[in-house]
Amino acid sequence: MAIDLMIMPLSRYFSGDYITPAMRQAWSVGASYKILTSEGARECPPDVPLGGLDATSKRHAALPELIESLRLLPFGIPDSLWDEASDVEPCFYRLELSSLEMLLEEAAEALVAKPSFLGRLVGKKAAPSHFLSAEMFLPVPFSEHFALGNTLTGSVHTAKRELESHTWSSGARPAYEHWIAALEDAIALNQPLVVDM
């Protein structure tokens, strides 16, 4: 299993209007690239986006509805919407699994704000971390994560602040460095970051 951090407009991600480095690598050595779907394996022909030949047209057709949906988001997000029509080349980061496991294990201890004894007595629960909870991160600062459809969504800025607030072990460091680089790219490009498994 591979875990990739992908920085791109949500319209591009949802429509499959992108080609990953793994796809390019397979094609460069003459291999086919297949993805598993609920209908079985599907081969992606060379230089065709993950979503197929019509991925770009699907993306453009879906833009008005997606933008309208994004305008309904909480926390002032609609006031800071990014450019969903952007044609900026997506960025990809592949995470090394053993380092990521260490980072997640350490973060579970370091980033979960546990309530005080009195808080626990009155039923308060631990405050969830954006980094640990979210699968999609928006390039807008906000403090509480929320569900966007079935996807827990956090803030790129909050996740970066959480990760930078601690010192991580040497084993967790490679995953940490990839996460920070990806979050910085998302901020610089003003685009969402999606965790793809």
UniProtKB/TrEMBL annotation:
Q: Which GO terms describe its molecular function?
A: phosphoric diester hydrolase activity
- What name does UniProt use for this protein? GP-PDE domain-containing protein
PROSITE patterns listed in its UniProt record = GP_PDE
Q: What organism does the UniProt record list as the source?
A: Rohdeia mirabilis
Q: Name one GO biological process term.
A: lipid metabolic process
Q: Which residues form the GP-PDE domain?
A: 161-197
InterPro entries reported for this sequence? GP_PDE_dom
